[in-house]
Amino acid sequence: MASFFEHGIPDMIKTTSIEKVVAPVITHMCHLVLICESGEGSEEFSELEGVAEGVAKASKNMAAVASRLAAESDDDIMREEMDPVVASMKLSGQHVLLTAQKLSIQPHIANHREELITSTQNVLLGLLKILLLEDDATVRKIVTAGHWLQDCLSQLEAAPNIPALLRAFQGFSEALLLLNNLVENRAKDLRDPGQQENLSRSLETLKKCVSMLHTAMCTTIKHPQSEQAQAAKKYIVEQVDSTIMELITTLKSNCHGSFLSSSGCYIDKLQGLLQLLDNPKGKAHRK
After folding, report:
1. pTM of full prediction above 0.70
2. d(Cα 164, Cα 169) in Å, to the nearest integer?
3. 4-135+260-286 carries CATH number 3.40.50.620
């Protein structure tokens, strides 16, 4: 049976939105596995098939939601990658129900129990894949906005006169506003305070650069022979471009692994539940 920790699941959960979806699901799955491990014909064991039906229904519903999101998305990568994940998710949910039904007929067969735990893990992995595909699409949208801002910066730099500069600045302002809104929403959702801080710092730097960028561009157009003006223009353009790249790098990076906010306690509980789901017998023996 593959370990959840081989997949690095706690490190993959970068946002509170994903965490809030996954943690309750893991709790219910742990309940299912614990019934499986400790039932042995008890009253609790009679609940197994009902709980498994709930898992199968939830898997089907999540797959339907994921299919709808993919169909409505303009992200080609997410649409292409979502279909096989959705199909696997529905199949894993049905497999949980089938293995639970086999256990209700032959409750003492160890292979049936192992099969139930494995299929339960596969449901969780399918859920995570769906959430992470959607999250990747969100990051790609922000990165695309960052590249648009870089294109607008190039148009600013190449503006030959003041009217062209003003038109270029309008596009630059629109791109910066879009990027700012997307990044602010992303930063609020991130679990890692280090990533949040880096994104906020990059946005603040970009905002501070706007005034100097305007001044430097106007000065070089009016005084094209001025070495000082050219140096100022080069400095601010490089500053803006490097800040955008830093922001993109932060968006694509993984969590740092140290959570100093209140979500740290929550994720610790999540990791404990993953360990229990991965090896329920071992946990029971250590009690």
Report:
1. yes
2. 9
3. no
